[in-house]
Amino acid sequence: MNFESYWLLVLPVFFGLGWLAARVDIRHLLTESRALPASYFKGLNFLLNEQPDKAIEAFIEVARADQQTIELHFALGSLFRRRGEVDRATRMHQNLVDRSDLGSDQRTAALHELAQDYLKAGLLDRAEAIFKDLRKTVFSEAALRFLLDIYVSEKDWQQAIATAEALESATGNAYRREVANFYCERAAIEYSHSQLDEAHTSIAAALEANRKCARANVMQGDWAQREGRHDAAVDIWRRIENQAPDYLFLVASPLMDSMRILGRMPEALLLLRGWMQRYPTLDLLAVVFRATLAEEGAESALRLVREELHRSPTLGALDKFLEAQLTQVAADQRDDLQLMRDLVHAHNNRLSLFQCTSCGFKARSFHWHCPACGGWDTYPPRRNAEGDPVVKVERMS
């Protein structure tokens, strides 16, 4: 490697330039820090000492003293909204929107914040109007999501459908489940107003949006049963096996009722036992157990739950087994067995809950729409207790 003597002159030059740049940056930083009001540093100190209320007051003082602190205005407004002080947040963001010296991007951001303030305050019409205007800006996707929340809360299902489809086009993410549920919600309203043709059209649209929408066939079967068309109801409900078989437990009991009316109980028991073998759930077991007990007697019901307990040793199966055992024991032996069954039954009921996969909210009954987080189809069609097996029993007499 050849070493040129002029390199010795280049190195000090680089060091000198670096020292000069550092001096300029430090002077610039000191100048900016001196320009900041003392309240700004007081606010930072309060934040570091976990005194948010005092920090907010200090930052408000800064905002009043220096109208150029735009980002601080945004931060304070968002903080007010999160703390539930919606009036203060609204005033802060409205002042920003009204300022003539704001650039277009900053004014758009202020409108986005203001619309969220209105939404938080429950002023849905004002929020909707702003979010509609924001659809042509960089906040288009966020505006569509907020609009979707508004239309769902207002039960404006037609607008919700259109907004979900717009979101699907804008983001590339699938909203088929949501759209299908919105059609089902609309169908329920139409059916309740005796608009039967419109209701069936909406159900067909739901199935077109999501062919695995079990809810659509659950509803169609319910309508047919109410109208006394029990054969049609049974045929519709049976489609769910090829569509989304884990949801069969939702139609097991009404299907049994319709087939009883039709005089087809042996066929019904055979059908539901097959479902229980292929798609076992505690709710399905409960229906089959009750029907077997009523139609074929305690011995057959006991045999059914014994086999299920061996195959899937869960608290729910044990609960039904003990219930069946109670019908077989002598009167002087019932007290101890009844106590055991009551304990198992109470514990199983505490655990047998449906749980939202999105927010974790638990409920005793199944929901298509989570009452906590508002998610659609976020409840798995199985209870928590079905995933908690009891100790495996090798032999059972």
Total number of beta strands: 2
What overall geometry do the principal axes of the alpha carbons give? elongated
- Going across the biggest sheet, name each strand in turn: 1-2
Strand content: under 5%
Structure, described:
It is a single chain. With 397 residues, the protein is mostly helical. It is built from 20 helices and two strands. It has a two-stranded antiparallel ribbon. β1 and β2 form a beta hairpin. α11 runs antiparallel to α12, α12 packs parallel to α15 and α15 runs antiparallel to α16. The N and C termini lie far apart (91 Å). The C terminus is likely disordered.
Outline:
The chain has 397 residues and is mainly α.
List keywords for this structure.
about 400 residues, single chain, mainly alpha, about 0% strand
Task: Please give the structural blueprint.
Layout: H1 7-35, H2 38-48, H3 52-65, H4 70-82, H5 86-98, H6 104-121, H7 124-133, H8 140-153, H9 157-171, H10 176-192, H11 196-209, H12 214-226, H13 230-238, H14 240-243, H15 249-261, H16 265-278, H17 282-296, H18 298-311, H19 315-326, H20 334-351, E1 354-355, E2 362-363
Helix pairs in contact: 2-3, 3-4, 4-5, 4-6, 5-6, 6-7, 7-8, 8-9, 9-10, 10-11, 11-12, 12-13, 12-15, 13-15, 15-16, 15-17, 16-17, 17-18, 17-19, 18-19, 19-20
